[in-house]
Design brief:
Layout lengths: L28 E3 L3 H7 L5 E3 L6 E3 L4 E3 L2 H18 L3 H6 L2 H29 L8 H14 L6 E3 L6 E6 L8 E5 L4 E6 L2 E6 L5 H5 L1 H7 L6 H17 L6 E6 L2 E6 L16 H11 L7 H4 L29
Parallel strand pairs: 5-11
Antiparallel strand pairs: 1-4, 2-3, 6-9, 7-8, 8-9, 10-11
Length: 327
């Protein structure tokens, strides 16, 4: 079964006439960001830069070739997600993680697709061939296969390929906040009373590493600065993760079942590398720049690292009401 599923990374096929997900011939497209989201938050005309910072596109112009079958499947998925979204945190907390994975995966894969097409075309103009390392080919091939669970009999075992966290989040206005990392396959979104973080391909390892923090915030409403700090923990944990995700693919005539294996580092290494407080503080300062908090304030000599999630010394969760910052 697995051999019959479309894999654009095998021959690096990113053509406007082949559906991005199924490989079917098509002249139709789908927006990377759902149309209702673009319209509601009015960011279709805002611009997003490519990773090399030399090219920018309007969010509303980001499209992928898409067959009618795949578009119908995504419309149904979007309807399900939007119904939960409109209920805020309560609706999102009840939503199946696979739906969250597929809905957010469309956005992250869509942005990745734009990067790949842009780079392929840029190299072609220079008379150069486009290529990817075997590591990235494997990573993106697996991600693409997992997204095909929306349209094909692809299922997941008890251990999921992802870590997903959803929690109440307070904004004082109708704000849409999101971050993504298309290379490392990370996504965060804060909107309509909830926040979510998705690691698409860590086999649950990062969620397990951060289980203490996630247990503390369970059911607690987060301040936006706490949301940024939580995502920084996910992002940095992904950076120091020293293992490649492995999967047991069980393929039959009835479909493909993906069994995610527990992450293990090679050569006796720890699963996560050395935690560098200085590097984490710099990452956090980037996320907290809107609050004007520099790295030097986050990490001070002979003082605990500044945190708005956990109190110094006790490690207790800091409630939203105790944070005297705008939201």
């Amino acid at each position: 079964m697995i051999d019959s599923l479309y894999n654009p990374f095998e021959d690096l096929i990113f053509d406007e006439h082949f559906c991005f997900l199924s490989g079917a011939l098509t002249n139709d497209t789908i927006s990377v960001f759902p149309e209702w989201l673009l319209e509601h938050f009015k960011f279709a005309d805002e611009r997003i830069e490519m990773m090399d910072k030399t090219k920018a596109y309007k969010f509303g112009d980001l499209k992928m070739p898409c067959s009618s079958e795949v578009k119908t499947a995504f419309d149904a998925l979007d309807t399900q997600f939007r119904a939960a979204y409109e209920k805020g945190y309560e609706g999102m907390a009840e939503l199946d993680e696979e739906v969250i994975f597929q809905w957010t995966g469309r956005i992250v894969y869509g942005l990745l697709y734009q990067e790949l097409v842009y780079e392929k075309n840029r190299l072609a103009r220079q008379g150069k061939d486009f290529g990817l390392s075997s590591f990235l080919k494997d990573r993106f091939s697996h991600f693409h296969l997992m997204l095909q669970s929306l349209i094909a009999p692809v299922s997941f075992g008890e251990r999921k390929p992802w870590s997903i966290a959803v929690f109440p989040l307070k904004y004082s206005a109708d704000i849409f906040s999101y971050r993504d990392d298309t290379v490392n396959l990370l996504f965060s979104m804060g909107v309509n009373g909830f926040g979510m973080v998705v690691c698409f391909q860590d086999n649950g390892a990062i969620g397990e590493r951060l289980s203490d923090i996630l247990e503390k915030i369970d059911g607690q409403t987060l301040h936006p600065i706490q949301f940024e700090e939580l995502y920084a923990h996910f992002h940095y944990s992904d950076y120091i993760l020293q293992a490649k995700p492995e999967y047991n693919m069980q393929s039959s005539e009835d479909g493909v079942r993906i069994e995610s294996l527990p992450m293990k580092a090679a050569n006796g290494k720890d699963l996560f590398g050395f935690w560098d407080d200085d590097m984490f503080a710099q990452l956090l300062a980037n996320y907290w720049s809107v609050y004007g908090i520099p790295r030097e304030e986050i990490l001070q000599f002979q003082k605990p690292r500044l945190s708005y999630l956990e109190a110094p010394y006790s490690g207790d969760f800091i409630p939203f009401e105790a944070i005297d910052l705008p939201y």
